[in-house]
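Holo model, magnesium ion. Inputs:
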Amino acid sequence: MDILKGIPVSPGIVIGKAFILDPEDIKIPRTTIEEADIPKEIARFEDALTRTRAQILEIQERIGREMGAEHSDIFTAHVLVLEDRMLIEEVIRDLKTKRQAVEHIFMEVLKRYGNAFSKIDDEYLRERVSDIQDVGKRVLHNLIGSERFNLANLNDEVVVFAYDLSPSDTATMHRERVVGFATDIGGRTSHTAIMARSLEIPAVVGLGDATQKVQSDDPVIVDGNHGLVIIQPDAPTLEKYIRARGRFEDFVRTLDKFKELPARTTDGHEVTLAANIELPDEIPHCISHGAQGIGLYRTEYFYMNRVDLPSEDEHFEAYRNVAEKVKPHPVIIRTLDLGGDKFLSSLEVPREMNPFLGWRAIRFCLARPDIFKVQLRAILRAAVHGKLKLMYPMISGLEELRQANQILSEAKEALRREGKEFDEHIEVGAMIEIPSAALTADVLAKESAFFSIGSNDLIQYSLAVDRVNEKIAYLYEPAHPAILKLIKNVIDAGHRNKIWVGMCGEMGGDPVLAVILLGLGLDEYSMSPVIIPEIKKVIRSISLKEAQEIALKSLELTTGAQIRSFVRERIKHILPEVLGEEG
Ligand code: PEP
Ligand code: MG
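Output:
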């Protein structure tokens, strides 16, 4: 039995069988060959090079067409690696002298190249190591005919173990067959973790070396409440977890009765509890957990796992569908938030050194109004069919907000000219998720219909803690006094300017923090639907007056840990299952 500790990211307990997804090192057989087989091996090698070249050129052509030549240049370097005579000749020479299958020989040559390049005292050349590795992997895949396993094709119920899962992996995952997952890296607000909560799949991330410790088909337990993964549990542990699973399911059932009730404090103050979605098929979950609308629709998932960009009509159909299903409640559509840990197959934006600080989200959309306008037009048109609002991600200051609004006006103007029906008065809000925006909220509020605080990013940028890096997850503290001060500033600025302020980051779904936010005056909370009933119970069990007093006292404390333990003591009687000693 092995017990591994990671970061709990999606609640629940699951007992199942392990499935290891795509171990990072491709397994290369070391087969000896006869002299007579050498020409055949050379032919296989050349065939793999030709196929790889064709694949890369295809990607390059598409990116060039969709995004301009400067973005497709990186692939020229990849093609050059494939055409490198020295590399090819070295493989053929080793093949003849060492008499081993070409996969093995090629991998050895790649390693030698990698080592030699990484020692060169020239940054440009050192960076070519990753090109060589990228291309090398493609050639190896073509040689051994393997591709990354597609999680949509599972036959049995499994707990997926992976070094990492990309948000696009999670989006295509077979909903019924993947019953839990565990990854070596990642943090609580990585998009893979957020997706797990949306899908209500118990999950633990940041486990370090889980994929090394587990074997395929091992019996495993994932405890998404406490961040534990147990490999090959012994009989008493298994029994303990069967009981714990039962207790957790009972607790979730007791929350059922809160679904239909308003999120109203004991002294009559009401807030809105909405849900976050990544894909429209999550809407039934939101409704069944009592969400009063969608506070964040992460539309970038719509661009994932496809080779082309969605057309205006495709966008329109998706948004209309969501608007109609959620009506009369509102749906806040966030415009494309590409980048950070979300990469789109159709828009292979070049890799950057600091992707979270790079050319992404609204920055990308402002640079590519052609792509941005397609989405804006669709949102404007779909808004006629329900209560749609729109918001921009990653606004850093007033110029960006104005530029985005200028493009929106142009989109409206074009629709007007074309005589298309659209919502002229759609409400437009700004996400506040960059410290500069939080500090100038007073200015932004004058030109926004509402604010939605993106705490996931606001925390990572304010505390300089990469939200997906498990090694520094201990520093990712939403209760940090600096964060509470920033949030207070945003809420006060919003209210001074008569606009409502919501939060769509994960912070609002933590019961301890939710009480502080209530006291600070937050108007709307949007979160993974599964957490709504729990937060509603907390809000219905406390008075606004008490929450205000708790928030005020919290602001006087000096560390996140102090703040947490103070609030936890004050409210643990409300949710003993989660906040009590046993919780
Ligand atoms: C946030 O940053 O808090 C947010 C809600 O957006 P995302 O998690 O998609 O970055
Ligand atoms: Mg964000």
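The first strand starts at residue 2 and ends at 5. The pocket of magnesium ion (ligand 2) is lined by residues 393, 433, 454, 456-457 (CB under 6 Å).
Archived with the compound record.
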